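Bit of a strange request maybe. I'm writing a small parser for structure token strings and I need a real example to test against, not something I typed by hand. Could someone generate the tokens for this chain?
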Amino acid sequence: MTLSSTTSLPAPEGPGSVSGAPQLPAGFAETFTSRYVDTGELRLHAVTGGAGPALLLLAGWPQTWYAWRLLMPALARDFQVVAVDPRGVGLSDKPRDGYDTGTLARDMVALMDALGHERFAMVGHDVGMWTGYALAADHPGRLDRLAVAEAAIPGLSPTPPLFGSDAANDRLWHFAFNRLAGVNEELVSGREQLYFGRQFATKAARPLPDYAVQHYVDTLADDAEALRASFEFYRALDLTIAQNEERKSRRLSLPVLAIGGAGNQGAGVGATMRLAADDVESLVLPECGHYPAEEAPEAMLSALAAFLAPYRDGRTSPDGRTTGGTAGRTDA
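Reply from user aminoacidic:
Good idea to test on real output. This should exercise your parser:
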């Protein structure tokens, strides 16, 4: 670990930190610590704990590291867990730009460098899945295994039609809305509960706890810069799409686990990753929507434990990759 990147910074406080987050699992604060990490370009907030090889957890829009809270205690028995708020999210810095996935991937590499992790595994959900793909493609020597959940990847997945079905429109209308320059912030400001609350209510097959939804909404409602930054991932899509058009010419060789909720993306996550990767295991979780880490934590933990076991145990092939996965399996 680069001590100068962490020891001179203040301890994170407030509801976005381990000390202030609501209703964490019993004993959580005995294992995990909130810390700021200076990457050289910006300050990121990470929650770290556990023992073993490094495992990076990256949530999506409109969530924070808190999305992983139900999985983290079990994962920490086998891994050094790093659950991070990316730029623009939670307690991390919120610059005006840098929300394309190439930059977001570089942020994650810089974070893991600062924490002393040259090689690591990663789990990315939603926008975190976008970043995971970019990291695997742009920095192929850094990731051992990649698990992703519940997203299509702009510039890789087929572009949906403008005039799609009602169901598709209900799932995707926020993409166009979030890309607007400014008017979306004006319309949502003061109505965060309506806008973000609807996202959680309509995309979950099993409702998230009220306290969790309120935590996410409050994080965005209490800070105008957090609200602004929440849209920046979408405003950067022109650049992200152009990057992904180039990335897909370089296929991924590392093992990939693609997780979809039967009530949302389903097998589409695996179909997306097979457009980019040769070693893809696809898993569809029944009675689960867009938020598997919170809707189906036990099923997701079981899937991650099996997928990450070769990495945990250090079983490697001659090319440096861990072996022992179940590539190509699809569970419906």
